[in-house]
């Protein structure tokens, strides 16, 4: 059975989806973009936006009973692949070896014209 995860420590869904869903011991998050919990877009470039996205993911994962250490797969969506190195510098501050599997793709456009969106698959404790 799937359960819906919702927290006010991350931005509310801006469409017909959930912040995350649990299924057994798995947690699947929706993509997080660099909005504060109040729904405000974070100022700054890719580094600041990536940091906010990861903080949002932390909050959603905590509400689901897990954390970044239990992430097994991430998918990173970038508006500009030229910003990969700057995004990766922030990303690697939050994930430790053994690192999760990851896909990174450049997309034509992201919601609210942000620079980065990240979704994760994690295991609950």
Automatic annotation (TrEMBL):
<dbReference type="InterPro" id="IPR006175">
    <property type="entry name" value="YjgF/YER057c/UK114"/>
</dbReference>
<dbReference type="InterPro" id="IPR006056">
    <property type="entry name" value="RidA"/>
</dbReference>
<dbReference type="InterPro" id="IPR019897">
    <property type="entry name" value="RidA_CS"/>
</dbReference>
<dbReference type="GO" id="GO:0019239">
    <property type="term" value="F:deaminase activity"/>
</dbReference>
<dbReference type="Pfam" id="PF01042">
    <property type="entry name" value="Ribonuc_L-PSP"/>
</dbReference>
<dbReference type="GO" id="GO:0005829">
    <property type="term" value="C:cytosol"/>
</dbReference>
<protein>
    <submittedName>
        <fullName>Endoribonuclease L-PSP</fullName>
    </submittedName>
</protein>
<comment type="similarity">
    <text>Belongs to the RutC family.</text>
</comment>
<dbReference type="InterPro" id="IPR035959">
    <property type="entry name" value="RutC-like_sf"/>
</dbReference>
């Amino acid at each position: 059975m799937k359960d819906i995860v919702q927290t006010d420590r991350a931005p509310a869904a801006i469409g017909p989806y959930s912040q995350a869903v649990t299924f057994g011991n798995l947690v699947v998050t929706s993509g997080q973009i660099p909005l504060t919990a109040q729904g405000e877009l974070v100022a700054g470039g890719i580094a600041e936006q990536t940091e906010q996205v990861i903080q949002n993911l932390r909050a959603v994962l905590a509400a689901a009973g897990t954390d970044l250490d239990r992430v097994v797969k991430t998918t990173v969506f970038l508006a500009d692949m030229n910003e990969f190195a700057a995004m990766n510098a922030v990303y690697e501050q939050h994930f430790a070896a053994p690192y999760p599997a990851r896909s990174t793709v450049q997309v034509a456009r992201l919601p609210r014209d942000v620079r980065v969106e990240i979704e994760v698959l994690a295991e609950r404790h």
